[in-house]
Please model this.
Amino acid sequence: MLSSEASMQVPPLAYIHTRMNDEIIDGLRAFLRDEQILTADEDLDVYSFDGTAMLHQKPRCITLPETAAEVSRILALANAENVPVVTRGSGTGLAGGSVPVDGCIVLCLVRLDKIVELDAKNLVMVVEPGVLTGTIADTASAAGLFYPPDPGSIKISTIGGNVANNSGGLRGLKYGVTRDYIMALEVVLADGQVLHTGSKCVKDVAGFSLRDLFIGSEGCLGVITKVTLKLIPQPASKKTMLALFDSMTAAAATVSAIIESKIIPCTLEFLDRVTVECVEGYAQIGLPTDCEALLLMEVDGHAAEVDEQAEQILALAKEGGAREVRLAESADEALRLASARRTAFSALARLAPTVVLEDITVPRSELARMVALIEDVGRRHGVKVGTFGHMGDGNLHPTFLCDERDEEEMHRVEAALQEVFDGAIELGGTITGEHGVGLAKKPFLPAQLGEVGIAMLRRLKDSFDPQGILNPGKVFD
Model:
């Protein structure tokens, strides 16, 4: 998050790039149709921000390529003329990664939206970057297969953005994150060259793993134009449970106890009282609003194993001080509970003009301490904060409810955020578990990676993008 004086607009990057002139637009028109190039003020406004609070900057133009060949020509032109390019999909990012920079071309990939192949024999799906994550999950499910990564924005985020940010989700504890399901990528490099890395083979260790460099690279190293995804068989059975606590630390301790018992639920989610109240007011599914913490837990697999693990989890929750435990009685109830958790951000957003949704991860053994720290920080700085997240993998989302028009309040929010990030690092954690660094987390990255780590990122950036045109100013200066 930028300081309140500077956060309303992304700083210009004139020291790197010259402003794009009309000749560049003419160059784009040589191979794109007029409706693929947007320059009107109302269009520029629409693409001037993403899902991050307080960050916006008008680009010079928006391009809407429909093929990888068009992406290649856009980048070759931009590289030759030293014009910055910021790639985006649905614009759901929460770290400012797809916010434009001054004078840039926005490369919007939503029209590259084809499912190229569903290869059930090899358990893979080949897709273009503009395919919605939910569409991938639904297509796999219709074929009796399973694509596990499920970010909270699953219905509207694109797979290209998921790969670029290495997105997580509710099932990350058991099934991992996006990186764990990427087998191959087609990437257009900054100069327009096309790189193919990886394959459908389960084992493929030829050369350095270039594929992994682009996963989580936030559009700074190349533009992803095709993704080969690993699928797995659908679990045969699942059960969903709810546990209510009068103490947030008791809920966090229960999560640690479940993991220590060597039970790995597919979902182990946490909502504090502020979030529960907001979600119930928004979704109205009958959640109790007088508890301090709610755990949403789901196990899946073979039926006998699911039954046994569900019983163990319910027993551990009771031992951990849960005042009530509940097993969803039907698939519909389980779906309503999971859907309610996905509305947490939207529900909290109703309470304040500005919502700063953050993203930190700590070792699971430190969850109770981290939750207590967030609560204490909010109280001491006089800011309202609701916390929810993927407690099973230690990933918490402290969400600050504020008003960016109140400069004094925003200074308090910034001070609170600094303490939260410092606390996470001190506990052996990270400043981001799934949202990426972008602009919002850039000031905090050196504290985690150190001088050598940042220097290595710079060397990689210089190798793949010597002109520095791809998403400049993101992740590091």
Notes: The chain is about 35% helix and 20% strand. The radius of gyration is 22 Å. The domain at 115-233 is CATH 3.30.465.10 (Uridine Diphospho-n-acetylenolpyruvylglucosamine Reductase; domain 3). The first strand starts at residue 37 and ends at 38.
